[in-house]
Amino acid sequence: MPRLPALPRRSAQGRLRHLVAALLCAHGAIAAAHLPPSEQIQALEAAQATHPDDPELLLQRSAIERRAGHPKAAATAARRALRLGATPSRAHLALAAALLDAGDADQALETLETALDQAPGDPALTRARGQARRARGDFAGAARDLAAALDLTAQPSPDDILEAMSVHVASGDEKGALAVADRVRVRLGAVASIELAAIRLERESGRHAAALARLDRLLAQSPRHPGWLAQRAAILDTLDRGEEAARSREHALAVLRLHPRSRHPERIATLEREIDASLAASSTPKGDSAP
Question: Taking CA 91 as the corner, what is the angle to CA 85 and CA 93, rounded to the nearest 5 degrees?
């Protein structure tokens, strides 16, 4: 990733000249992102003094003002960028993000509706509209948009997928959340964070056999994951498959005892104690009690 060179001995004026040059280059926003917002704004103001109508600089200004916690200034910069010929989808996204930061979800939604009229099916705009709808309390509409954005995106991020699932749950549509996880799995394979969220939903809804099937798919990829083996044992207990649960716990213990203790020693020790206690409890005949 491009970075600004270290300039510890330069004068403030020399440092500013370098920042202006970075902001005017193709990767200026990335290069300047490591600096405090106040320095980024100072450099942008200097760059804009010679390039006052550059829409790219205005979009960078909008992003920096948002990071600095100035949503009104961010919205002003995005509106001006739009008037000066910035790519409409990027400018509308910047404006909607600033309006959401300012708490104006209605105006953000109107902005995104206008943008989608011009660029129907744009995944970033569709996702942003879902976020605006969520901010307005329209969870069902948000769920539709966020799910549609996933379908329109070649490689959606786990965070975007989890967001879509959580909004479905907030709308009361747990089956819709699970359907999102299933569609993603068909396209991308089993992603641990997504499947674990789906497993939690299945268990909370009492669908333990479905949760076990999802967990077994993860274990097919990582058969020596002690935490998943322990969770598998817990699900098997719920399904009254005690012998299989005990074998799963014994497998988990065997894996744990091969783990290097230098990484997460407290977590490993805690999991080991929990598995030991579960095995001891399962080996005690029902009705027996300690003296």
Answer: 160
Rounded to an integer, what distance in angstroms lies between the CA atom of residue 2 and that of residue 10?
Answer: 20
Tokens representing residue 194 in the block: 């997504």
Give ranges for CATH 1.25.40.10 in the chain: 103-110+121-207
Calculate the alpha carbon distances from 183 to 126, 165, 209 in Å: 18, 12, 19
3-state helix, strand, coil in the chain (%, to 5): 75, 0, 25
The reply to whether the predicted model has a pTM over 0.90 is no
Identify the CA nearest to 224 among candidates 264, 268, 255, 186. 255
pLDDT at 88 over 90: yes
Q: Residues 223, 233: contact at Cβ < 8 Å?
A: no
CA 34 to chain centroid: 21
- How many C-beta neighbours within 10 Å does residue 132 have? 27
Measuring CA to CA, which residue among 191, 167, 164 is closest to residue 180?
A: 164
What is the DSSP secondary-structure string of 32-77? Answer: HTTS-HHHHHHHHHHHHHH-TT-HHHHHHHHHHHHHTT-HHHHHHH
Angle at 191 between CA 251 and CA 275, to 5 degrees: 25
- What does the pLDDT look like over 130-165, one tens digit per residue? 999 999 999 999 999 999 999 999 999 999 999 999
CATH code for the domain defined by 103-110+121-207: 1.25.40.10
CA angle, 86 then 92 then 164, to 5°: 135
Q: CA–CA separation, 95 vs 222, rounded Å?
A: 43
